[in-house]
Amino acid sequence: MPKPAGLDSDAPLSLAYLTYRGKPHVGGQGVYTRHLTKALADLGHSVEVFGGQPYPELDERVALTKLPSLDLFNDHYPGRFPAYWEFKTRHDLLETAVFCTGQFPEPLAFSARVKHHLRARLGEFDLVHDNQCLGYGIAKLEQQIPLIVTLHHPITRDRMLEMDAAPNRFKRVSIGRWYGFVKMQGRVASQMPRVVVVSENSIQDIHTDMGVPLENMRLVPVGVDPELFKPLDNVERVPGRLITTASADVALKGLSYLVEAMAKLRADGHDISLTIIGKPKPGKSMDLIDEYGLAPHIQFVSGVTDERIVELYDEAELAVVPSLYEGFSLPAIEAMCTGTPLVATDGGALPEVTGADGDTVFRCRKGDADDLASTIRDALADPDARARIGAAGRHRVLDRWTWRRCAQLTVEQYRDVLAMPDNVAKLRANGRLDA
Description:
Blueprint lengths: L13 E6 L8 H15 L3 E6 L11 E4 L23 H11 L5 H13 L8 E5 L4 H7 L4 E5 L4 H10 L3 H10 L2 H11 L3 E3 L2 H11 L6 E3 L21 E5 L9 H13 L5 E5 L6 H9 L5 E4 L4 H10 L2 E4 L8 H8 L4 E4 L4 H5 L7 E3 L4 H12 L2 H18 L2 H16 L2 H9 L6
Parallel strand pairs: 1-2, 1-4, 2-3, 4-5, 5-6, 6-7, 8-9, 8-11, 9-10, 11-12, 12-13
Helix pairs in contact: 1-16, 2-3, 3-4, 5-6, 9-10, 9-14, 12-15
């Protein structure tokens, strides 16, 4: 079997990459998975992705091994109860048992599935890279094979914002139970010898909320493909067109505030339209769209190619990230890379990512629909500022964030982890190094 020439060499690595949920075109996990694994392949490394539904879309050089869940939260029937004939393994029973307690079961169940699958294949890989699953099975895997984790942001912040937005005590209790897996993730992350984090803001929040030691975390920002996400000469901006990304209608993403801001602007006579990259899903934002009669002025777009997404950005006069919290924000840097001027809140890591107000972004306060509406109004009224901020935003991204650079920094972390004495012993035990 192939073996690394040495721990300090530039020899290609054999990597097992884990993603329990890899939705292709919206949602950071799927985008991160697709582009990072492609960039790792570009650097000459061998990558096999192990994933649950929805499965990621990958470069042809990257193998995908499907570890199907019961898919209880698919887009068509979210929260469904499985039929008896669907139970094929003990992991299916585990997933359903956790679901019956009111908790989100996928991280724990996927970690059990992947641990079971990889136990017979430890000799095929140098290292396992877990993308924010952090189930108990991941901790057990780390005892057998070198392992590294990417933690984009602490899900504790999602839980806090959802509970703050809950209309009553019963709903808050339900949300707290649903996010029960967060405690598990904190315990597992705290045991990992290396946690890759995508922003300085996330490092501090993960340490505060989840107890992960600061010395175990390393900053590796995510990236964008500048040859794909770029200004298009043959596409014209549509007057008054806004664009945003919403993988889910949850409090953290702040979509409801953008809908309210849009209603205020239209009530003041502004001809505003909105493209949402994502699927319409029941929730507060959809209720507000109906309440304000905005459906004719909003289009949802999903399941399209990256090339079409770039065209949509180039058709918009402004991209908007209305989030209450972001650990990084891929949609922000993708919009900036196309040269589309960006309106973004001060939530989480967004100021760190998007830069200074007036230089590379139009900044507004998080959770403030009035300030968001005012910021959009002022930006639409100033074409010179839009052109300047759009161009400066692209330069900021090109100077800092590409997927190749992300992959290079990630490989540096791989080699650092592989050189740890405990992991050298694991490599020898697995036959990846000569005794």
